[in-house]
Amino acid sequence: MAPLRDAASYGKPKPKVVLPPVVKGDLTGKTVIVTGANIGLGFEAAKHFATMNPAQLIIVCRSMEKAQASIKQIEKETGYKNAEPMVLDLGKWSSISEHWTVIDILVENAAVGIPGNYVPTEDGWESIGAAFSASISSDAYLLNIMLVRKLAEHLPQNVVPVTLSPGFCVSGLRRWAVGEVAEQFKKMEDESAYTSEEGSRHIIYSAIGGKDEELRGAFMSYLEPAEISAWMLKVEMIELFGKLDDRIPGIVAQYLKA
Q1: Tell me, what is one Gene Ontology molecular-function annotation carried by this entry (predicted)?
Q2: Strands of 105-107's sheet in order across
Q3: d(Cα 35, Cα 186) in Å, to the nearest integer?
Q4: Which of 9, 159, 178, 203 is a plausible cystine mate for 45, CB 3.0–4.6 Å?
């Protein structure tokens, strides 16, 4: 299995490997939701899903204009006509309101690439750029892996939580960069980056390509479950969630209930 080293090597892309073609499936009658589906890996994943004939493909963006533009392009490239737009801005609690009775596949794709300046959200919360500028990005990635493993223990068997690393990909994530920083990113992309379409293959595989018992609680890297470090499996690390709940009573239960 692939080693768990993506967070540790953040900023140092690994050499590219040849990825297998995207997996295909029949999604007839299924409802698929993809967030951040107007650009990059989210958009490419949405296009792949569209070719599999889902009953509903929900394109989630931060603005209706972006969602509608994405739907128009998906229809043009795939011929799929059942995509629907949804506006969702995680910086606005009021936008988190719509729901479906049944969701078969939920791709919570999102990424942001901005300078580390302090920029509050509309509701006054610290933005991701400010938080990551405090050098906690590796902690966030680690907690993401641990959270998915914990969710797998509590969620019903028919719900399969997965997290993944698509590798270093070309996308609009670095469009803010200018000058020397932009030149450095361009050099890195030319040397070792995957295309957005190649990156989206990881999303599709994690959604439909593997067996549930293989994917449940897994951190996927290079289309297979990554080996989890021994220290993460220790009781002390697992008890971290209990310590978190001690500091913020009810936070774990509240999250799982939501």
Answers
A1: oxidoreductase activity
A2: 83-87, 56-61, 31-35, 105-107
A3: 26
A4: 203
